[in-house]
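Tutorial, part two.
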Amino acid sequence: MPITCLVDTNVLLRFADRTSPQHTIARDAMRTLTLRSYDLCITPQNGIEFWSTATRPKENNGFGLSVAVANRRLRLLERVLTLIPDDAGIYKRWRVLVQEVGVTGKQVHDARLVAVMLTNNIQNILTFNGVDFARFVAQGITVLDPLSFALPKEINETL
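Running the prediction step on this input gives:
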């Protein structure tokens, strides 16, 4: 039975952008987890966050992609990753979680991802922002850092 792992949007963005300095790291991590029988998944929120960053102008900390290019890249991610659907239980779990953990500001989005994970019995998240998810370890969340899956340079040159 595969182990399920949610892929954070920051990893998805680097995976989809071959010009990113972190592309190879994101690709290696996703490839390695897949080879280890992990079922990599995303949520509708990941798609929304991906679209927001991908289409936002570069001068506003985005990627500046056209709608057509962003659509192609998101469609690729949707084909290769399992989409976890939203349901009413996620909001209820999120409401309890933000109060229990004391989540404020922009970190409510990370808490929502954790609510999806808890609602769907997903323990692992692959993210470049492990610090943002560290507060949820007590809820049973395991943070996987893509850097820990980096392949040696010699292997990467053959891929």
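The chain has eight helices and five strands. In part three we will examine how such features are distributed along the chain.
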